[in-house]
Amino acid sequence: MDVPIKEAARLLKSSKKAIALTGAGVSTESGIPDFRSQGGLWSRFDPVKYGTLSAFKRNPVEVWKMLAELISIADARPNQGHLIMAEFEQKNIIKGIITQNIDMLHFKGGSKNVIEFHGAISSLTCLGCKTQFPLSALDKKTIPPPCPHCQSLLKPDVVFFDEQIPEEVIEKSRDLMRGVDCLLVAGTSCSVMPASFFPQQVLDQGGTIIELNLEPTLGHRATVVLRAGFSKTMQLLQKEIEDHT
Length: 245
Ligand code: NAD
Ligand code: ZN
Prior knowledge:
Helix content is 35%, strand content 16%.
């Protein structure tokens, strides 16, 4: 671990524009299960069956059982890794984050330039009158909760598997990705398109990839591999960068 940490710190410090791409694995230490965790949400609710807009419209009561559990992650707290990620942005070591997570933990951890690629559970939109409501306005006792204005179905502002990423999010990501020469890929299996294309784009731009994951994901495409937990690894990276600046 010692050698890859030194190398990862060197890549981050010597880059002109480093950013992070994060996924569910950065939040498991905050108590939110990723797709693989045993007994987690996704082992009980098949994401293919429950995670589509068409399933939602077909059977809102059933899908809202899953969504009710999903939005309970709104109470989770950022872990040490999220906090260090925010510090890295403040110190200009990274310029921003593209996260696939919907849990708002990067913002709660103090990061500012965060693109929530798959949306977030911070708000819901009525499929009838299109009004957007903050999560706090939700009547959590009734499932599915009705729109306070027109009683239609409310959908959390997250991107379902059969939905497109909103155009403005694609554009913001394109801007942030421009000129990136180092990508810290943390806690993502890189299996959900189109977010899974970002590592290759950075390589095509002549950049480097730091893979931070408990298990192999990017194979030979990773320049440096940090095979350990998120918080612990971020602390080691922080120390290495502090000691050599
Ligand atoms: P994934 O579940 O497919 O992969 C998670 C990856 O993180 C795995 O490769 C795993 O080895 C790794 N990991 C787990 N714990 C780790 C730790 N402590 N340290 C380092 N690595 C760890 O997640 P994904 O790639 O983000 O794709 C899942 C999709 O589901 C995303 O689109 C995301 O929006 C959604 N999702 C979001 C959340 C959330 O908001 N927290 C949780 C589950 C799923
Ligand atoms: Zn409405």
